[in-house]
Amino acid sequence: MKKILNSPDAYVDEMLAGLIAAHSEHYQMYGDSGKVVARAKPGKPGKVGIVTGGGSGHLPVFTGYVGQGLLDACAVGDVFASPSAEQMADAIRVADNGAGVLRLYGNYGGDVMNFDMAGELVEFEDITCSTVLLADDVASAPPDEAEKRRGVAGMVYAFKIAGAAAEEERDLAAVTAVAQKAADACRSIGAALSPCTVPQAGKPTFEIADDEMEMGMGIHGEPGVWRGKLQSADEIANEMMDRLLADMPLANGDRVSVLVNSLGATPPEELYILYRIVKERLDATGARIIMPLVGRYATSMEMSGVSFTLCKLDDELERLLRAPCDCAFWRVG
Amino acid sequence: MKKILNSPDAYVDEMLAGLIAAHSEHYQMYGDSGKVVARAKPGKPGKVGIVTGGGSGHLPVFTGYVGQGLLDACAVGDVFASPSAEQMADAIRVADNGAGVLRLYGNYGGDVMNFDMAGELVEFEDITCSTVLLADDVASAPPDEAEKRRGVAGMVYAFKIAGAAAEEERDLAAVTAVAQKAADACRSIGAALSPCTVPQAGKPTFEIADDEMEMGMGIHGEPGVWRGKLQSADEIANEMMDRLLADMPLANGDRVSVLVNSLGATPPEELYILYRIVKERLDATGARIIMPLVGRYATSMEMSGVSFTLCKLDDELERLLRAPCDCAFWRVG
Amino acid sequence: MTITHNGLLSAIDRIAAAMERDFDMLNAADGALGDGDLGVTMTRGMRAISETKDDLPEDIGMALFQCAQAFTKSSGSSYGTLVATGLMSAAKTLRGKDHIDPEDMSGLIAGARDKMQERGKAALGGKTVLDSLDYLAKALASAENKATAAAQAVDTALKDFRDKPATAGRARIFGDKSIGMDDPGMLAMQSVVKAAVARH
Amino acid sequence: MTITHNGLLSAIDRIAAAMERDFDMLNAADGALGDGDLGVTMTRGMRAISETKDDLPEDIGMALFQCAQAFTKSSGSSYGTLVATGLMSAAKTLRGKDHIDPEDMSGLIAGARDKMQERGKAALGGKTVLDSLDYLAKALASAENKATAAAQAVDTALKDFRDKPATAGRARIFGDKSIGMDDPGMLAMQSVVKAAVARH
Ligand SMILES: Nc1ncnc2c1ncn2[C@@H]1O[C@H](COP(=O)(O)OP(=O)(O)O)[C@@H](O)[C@H]1O
Ligand SMILES: Nc1ncnc2c1ncn2[C@@H]1O[C@H](COP(=O)(O)OP(=O)(O)O)[C@@H](O)[C@H]1O
Ligand SMILES: [Mg+2]
Ligand SMILES: [Mg+2]
Ligand SMILES: [Mg+2]
Ligand SMILES: [Mg+2]
């Protein structure tokens, strides 16, 4: 897969420059550490700040979800590489409106270390931080080691729900609690058909034969649960739903939102083919589907493949999911 | 590039079934001819109807743009194949609110014949039709044969502007006139890096070496103006802007909207890298950029590459472009 | 060569069979100069017509009109729409009759050619199905043996245009590269006509 | 082996040079068990430290603190953050001093190991840089010739852990496939320590 770029080293900085040139009504750069993006219009004083961060190459994740009813700021690193603690500290600084800051991000070793260190840096500046980790990828560890799971597309739900709660001017503890509830309510699984190329590496993240797919592969090419012949859309969708529903069973009367997400190259046409089965399987549980999302919400550049995320909702989560939000990639309400 | 599907013959029908299952608040199927999509909530009586149509495989084009402030109905064929005159006639029938119907679509031989024939079919039912063809691809014919040009991403502007005019309850002649004005104001050019696969063909639409690109290639793989070494992002963007501005010069004080569009697999990261140059070049003309669009607005499934579209605006076009619209893929206002 | 209701039905059978036989050849010819679906279009169209066979009215104009409708619903391809346009033109002229007279053939085909030209806005001489029809209409105007003349006309048209560039439809974009290659629509018309007159 | 301000500066030079030399080796080792950027991380980090060399204060604690800051700003990679965490731990203990006493080395490294373990939440014995530091701290506690002991300790650590599976960081997902392969972070520490004690 070919890439349109200038120098691999400039990929992320030029991407951010273009993003901000195109959407200055939504985003602005902040600070000197580089690659820190904040809302163009800061949140109200007293609103809890929400920051995220992680490697680049996942647009709209992470930077794209900075916006009203979503995140306050974001630190990104190079493609698939953690930002530095210093950048994260800058993101926390700009996100703080005096009510403390929630760090809401995916469970990856480097990101965790750096966000912890960033928290120690800003402690000296009297900014209180809390943490919620997304660990929704059921293929990355069994249920009894759920805390080891990687964070993937489920973070979109957590950003949305926590963002709406913060907008209601709840305090840090309350925003953190609802973000944790949202994180706990998400389960995801991915399936990859072809790799992407990290600009600085210059070659695909993994190799896979022309007639093969990998079930459960991670968004950076982390090994999945099996590799084998490319299956039909309905077979793929059914296996993914099997795995999700085994991890988080749904019962008659439950409410659930579902995200059918392209990892990048897979076109919406194919997401809709899959969605038929997703809906059929959810309908069969008796659960009600709330605000289904189909599209590119969390990607790996030009990787082809899909992920499904279920987010089980109660009254509070449903209300917050449906609350207004606005950024260059997603609008609700 | 691998595809997620069941039977190639079912690709489009299953895609539409999933689209409507996911977004029943926006879309519904209409009639017996198949592959005709209408608004879930029809336009008001007396509103001019707007229909489009063409081959599948270009989501959000065509079907996705059925919605408030946009299109009333759409007929799609198999991937990259014209729908039949009968389907188009059905689309016209459901779009008609008693005030006549504008046929607004891309300049492709088969589509033109079929929309003409569809018009003759519905004439017997006393539905008045007008036509505006999109022919914005500057690479497909020289300026003195502009009427032979193919229609590409420029149709997004035409849909938006004509849709907003119809929503204002102008009559058919007025909606047609402003749609023509929008079509005349658009210029596009594409560059492709890798092909897509038409499900029924089962093999890529064209072949291209790993280090090559093609400037000016059409969205179905129609030959472009040159094929050669893959250039840097800035070189690609500059040549594309050169070609567009040569065809439609801009002067100090002009207003222009610009669409930087992925043909499918090319990720938003790379669109933003390109956007830096697009903005620089437009700023250099002295023109003012209105509502820039960056994303996947008109695609060829998993083709990788980009297109740029300029739409030169006057007061009326700017107002209509900024007017509210709503569909599953795009919201303004 | 008077065409009666039964004659029409058996011609439909022969053409449908020819299209199944030529499926790959037509796809390949269209693949070289277009999108490779002409075999698909023709088999689908003729299958759709065959399915309506039992319900075709005695009025041969009405029968052709129903054939046109069946063909057009089966796909939106250019060729299908052009063929349906031609059939409708003949249908209008023939309405109320229960057969086609041999001496009317040339005029019917010329009429179809003109309506198809209006529909497709391509010039005569552009190396399309229009040229096959043009040769047909001219050959049938004078010929004694209509069947033989028809079969010869579609061959000659192909031969005469082979070394010209395509100027209409998708083949247009190939420009001079199309020189030496047969137009897929003319090939399809050759198969159709030869099957119709049972000279295949 | 007392380390003075000048000793620190020349150690920085040697380590920086070693990282340039080992750039490909470290990238390759990390490529086999991770994302292949460890050479990038180490050269960037050491370049950043080298750039601050002229401004490093006489207070050796403050100097190490500035080295840690420079390293951490240069990237967000796990190894960089761990190294910076270790340097900060030593920096805190050393604050106010203008040199490092040989007999304090073991304790400083043990302290760094513990802070890094807190940061990364990986267990000792998990085949990571922590194990290299653990071997170092233990070897330095008793050794007469600190330099020789340090150089031996990082070698022994690699040897002892080669045939164990990785359990932390990105390498964890390779599980038993990592048996027989060197941990990239331990390799980096081997190069750093040997360059520091000029035994490369
Ligand atoms: N505008 C036109 N006028 C006359 N004939 C045309 C025209 N366009 C296409 N054709 C004929 O149709 C043939 C191609 O038909 P078809 O494969 O159905 O086209 P497509 O797949 O592009 O819709 C051409 O070989 C040519 O003979
Ligand atoms: N949680 C951890 N605890 C201890 N050491 C770790 C941890 N994570 C990574 N490491 C060490 O860091 C090395 C990898 O560093 P690096 O390439 O910077 O990681 P990444 O690129 O994944 O951020 C590993 O070989 C290991 O020695
Ligand atoms: Mg890394
Ligand atoms: Mg076709
Ligand atoms: Mg064709
Ligand atoms: Mg690494």
* Tally of contiguous helical segments of chain A: 8
CATH structural fold name of the largest domain in chain A: Rossmann fold
What portion of residues of chain C belong to β-strands?
Answer: under 5%
N→C terminal distance of chain C: 17 Å
The stretches of 5 or more residues of chain C where confidence is low (pLDDT under 50) are none
The name of the CATH superfamily of the largest domain in chain A reads: Dihydroxyacetone kinase, domain 1
What structural class do you assign from the helix and strand content of chain C? mainly alpha
Rg of chain A, nearest Å: 19 Å
- CATH class categorisation of chain C: Mainly Alpha
Gross morphology of chain C is globular
Largest sheet of chain C: none
Assembly annotation: heterotetramer
Biggest interface: A-B, 55 and 55 residues
- The string of secondary-structure elements of chain C, in order, is HHHHHHHHH
Task: Report what the structure shows.
- Chain A is of the alpha/beta class.
- Chain A folds into two domains: 8-184 and 322-332, Dihydroxyacetone kinase, domain 1 (Rossmann fold), CATH 3.40.50.10440; 186-314, Dihydroxyacetone kinase, domain 2 (Hypothetical Protein Tm841, Chain: A,domain 3, 2-Layer Sandwich).
- Chain A contains eight helices and 15 strands.
- In chain A, the strands form three sheets. In chain A, strands 7, 8, 9, 10, 11, 12 and 13 form a seven-stranded mixed beta sheet that branches. In chain A, strands 1-2-4-3-5-6 form a six-stranded mixed beta sheet, with helices on both faces.
- Chain A is globular.
- With 200 residues, chain C is mostly helical.
- Chain C has one domain (3-196): Alpha Horseshoe (Serine Threonine Protein Phosphatase 5, Tetratricopeptide repeat).
- Chain C contains nine helices and no strands.
- The mean pLDDT of chain C is 95.
- Classes of the chains: A alpha/beta (333), C mainly alpha (200).
- Chains in contact: A-B, A-D, B-C.
- Bound molecules: adenosine-5'-diphosphate (ADP) (2 copies) and magnesium ion (4 copies).
- One magnesium ion binds at residues 30, 34-35, 37-38, 77 of chain D.
